[in-house]
Design a protein that fits this description.
Layout: E1 4-7, H1 11-23, E2 27-33, H2 40-44, E3 47-52, H3 63-72, E4 77-79, H4 89-97, E5 101-102, H5 107-114, H6 116-125, H7 141-151, E6 155-159, E7 168-171, H8 174-192, E8 197-201, E9 207-215, E10 221-233, E11 236-242, H9 249-264, E12 270-278, E13 284-290, H10 297-304, H11 308-316, E14 331-338, E15 340-341, E16 347-348, E17 351-352, E18 355-357, E19 364-368, E20 375-376, E21 383-391, H12 394-407, E22 409-411, H13 417-424, H14 427-431
Parallel strand pairs: 1-2, 1-4, 2-3, 4-5
Antiparallel strand pairs: 6-7, 6-8, 9-10, 9-12, 10-11, 11-14, 12-13, 14-21, 15-16, 17-20, 18-22, 19-21
Length: about 450
């Protein structure tokens, strides 16, 4: 087992990893930018190293400084968390070159799944259902229009290096294709330095369902059932729950086995997530694979009593998994509490938290790094924390979530709490009959 792990991240996920490390008697090293000098992950770590100024590219994305920090503190492993360098194959390779274990997949695995076009081809070969579309990247507009007519509109253009909804455009006819093509390429090039596009059939009335998997170094893979991430705005998840109110036992089993087949096809090591779009008929299609821990992993932990961070560390240390699959024995839901103004287009609201009261009680979990007097910097993601509640039924979860949200007091910045409270009372949400487009017609004006 590792003696000391450097956590190449910040905020709530850095704290989450530290807690498990402490329970496993593993020392931790925090890295931080000058903007995060007063953060809790810095205070709670056994050691800490400043790796640069506030901009991410000079600190949390600075591979040279992070490796240097690991070397001077004699770390034998690095946990990347999510975001930043967590799916960076070059970083994984450099860790390997320096004899530091990257707690995650190998560079080859990250490359296999990091490019969406090649990931789709890999999954298709493994027998995982994929959305009809182009075989790899589109060469030009003419080719795109030809394929769109073959598989029938509507179609969606997607950036191969995309994420967060950038470089994506829905196209309904030939006449709109050229503008959508140019807009998607320009946005993808600016955001990722790669303007390559591929095309897919646009799945109507979709649910966003992801399957949590874990693989070890010996070829075994298990799944931990699904998470429903359909409540999202502009492709950004706001609420996640498990089990999904839409998924049947039969569909869960088919999707779980498909996810295992996909992961085994690349000999996947570590925790990962296979994301699917599921249409109204229950047909599911591979969307992408995240080769890291997910933001929403706590709800899976709550319903399976399975510490995913601990399992990541054990797998990285060469300990085999049991190979059995895990199924929900509770219901759990997560609301992302962000420093944003939902009544004003979810505009970021950085600043100093003047008052903070955290909810508690049976079935309530908070993963957060903030405290009263903490200043939320404008340089990073606006997440304040994650409110996770669990209960015996979905109805009980919603009631408990509303109670906890009403107890959650944050003053000094705008937050998404008012939106979540309203959502818990929304008839469509309570019925479980919603798609990824549900919030497109949601009324945010009275928040």
């Amino acid at each position: 087992m590792f003696k000391k792990i450097l956590i190449a991240n910040r905020g709530e996920i850095a704290l989450r990893i530290m807690r498990t490390c402490r329970e496993m008697n593993i020392k931790t090293v925090a890295v931080y930018s000058t903007a995060d000098k007063e953060s809790l992950h810095v205070r709670f770590a056994d050691e800490s190293v400043c790796i640069g100024p506030a901009p991410s590219k000079l600190s949390y994305l600075n591979i040279k400084n992070i490796i240097s920090a690991a070397e001077i503190t004699n770390c034998d492993a690095i946990h990347p968390g999510y975001g930043f360098l967590s799916e960076n194959a070059e970083f994984s390779q450099i860790c390997k070159d320096y004899g530091i274990k990257f707690i995650g997949p190998t560079p080859e695995m990250i490359n296999a799944m990091g490019d969406k076009a090649s990931a789709k081809a890999t999954m298709k070969k493994a027998g995982v259902p994929t959305i009809p579309g182009s075989d790899g990247l589109l060469k030009n507009i003419k080719e795109g229009i030809k394929i769109a007519n073959k598989i029938k509109y509507p179609v969606i253009l997607k950036a191969t290096a995309g994420g967060g909804g950038k470089g994506m455009r829905i196209v309904n006819n030939d006449e709109d294709f050229e503008k959508a093509w140019n807009d998607a390429r320009n946005e993808a090039g600016a955001a990722f330095g790669n303007d390559g596009l591929y095309l897919e059939k646009f799945v109507e009335e979709p649910r966003h369902i992801e399957i949590q998997i874990v693989g070890d170094q010996y070829g075994k893979v298990c799944h931990l059932s699904e998470r429903d991430c359909s409540i999202q705005r502009r492709h950004q998840k706001l609420v996640e729950e498990t089990p999904s109110p839409f998924i049947t036992e039969e569909l869960r089993e088919r999707m779980g086995q498909a996810a295992i087949s996909g992961a085994q096809s690349i000999n996947y090591e570590g925790a990962g997530t296979i994301e699917f779009l599921v249409d109204k008929h229950g047909e599911f299609y591979f969307m992408e694979m995240n080769t890291r821990i997910q933001v929403e992993h706590p709800i899976t932990e709550e319903v399976t009593d399975y510490d995913l961070i601990k399992e990541q560390i054990k797998v990285a240390a060469g300990i085999p998994i049991s190979g059995k699959n895990y199924y929900p024995n509770l219901y759990s839901m997560e609301c992302r509490i962000n420093a944003e103004d939902p009544a004003n287009g979810f505009r970021p609201s950085p600043g100093r938290i003047t008052t903070l009261h955290i909810p508690g009680g049976h079935g309530v979990r908070i993963d957060s790094h903030v405290y009263s007097g903490y200043t939320i910097p404008s340089n990073y993601d606006s997440m304040i924390g994650k409110l996770i509640v669990s209960a015996q039924s979905r109805e009980e979860v919603i009631v408990r979530m509303k109670r906890a949200l009403n107890e959650f007091v944050i003053e000094g910045v705008k937050t998404t709490i008012p939106f979540h409270i309203k959502l818990m009372d929304d008839p469509g949400f309570k019925s479980g009959k919603f798609t990824t487009k549900y919030l497109d017609t949601f009324d945010f004006s009275d928040l």
